[in-house]
Amino acid sequence: DQSINCPLLSKPPVQPLTVPSCLPAPRPGFKLPGYRPSPMDQRILVWSGRYKTPDQIPDLVSFETLDAARNKLRVKACYGMIVITILACLITVIMGKRAAGRNESLTALNMEKKARWREEAKIAREEEAAAGAVVLAEKSQ
């Protein structure tokens, strides 16, 4: 058995790690499998139907339970937005048909508005011209 006394090939002795007393004690590498729900999380758990009242919710809830409750509430919110969108579309169609029955159209409204703007611009130009003529008359005197 030949042993080589080369400093590169020999391993130094392993010394155990010591933690200085000024540092806090090391935490364990594991945590309890759970999550302490916040008041909003408790509301979500109740709204999703997981628990009947906030008093029934345990101190620690698994991540999967909370995630499933959030997903269920997210889906309910999406369904609500779909219903609101469909209702808004129906209301818009009904209002459009009533306006068509009164012979109102967006084209006619736009033409009336632009004609009103042209009249206002014409009156403003005439007032400016009249004011300019008064100033010239005063300067010539």
UniProtKB/TrEMBL annotation:
UniProt membrane topology term: Single-pass membrane protein
Coiled-coil ranges per UniProt: none
Chain segments annotated as transmembrane: 77-96
GO CC annotations on file: membrane; mitochondrion
InterPro entries: DUF1075 (IPR009432)
Source taxon at top rank: Eukaryota
Pfam families cross-referenced by the UniProt entry: DUF1075
UniProt subcellular location: Membrane
One Gene Ontology biological process: positive regulation of release of cytochrome c from mitochondria
Keywords: Membrane, Transmembrane, Transmembrane helix
Entry similarity comment: Belongs to the UPF0389 family.
PANTHER family per the UniProt record, alphabetical: GROWTH AND TRANSFORMATION-DEPENDENT PROTEIN, PROTEIN FAM162A
Protein name: Family with sequence similarity 162 member B
Organism ancestry: Eukaryota, Metazoa, Chordata, Craniata, Vertebrata
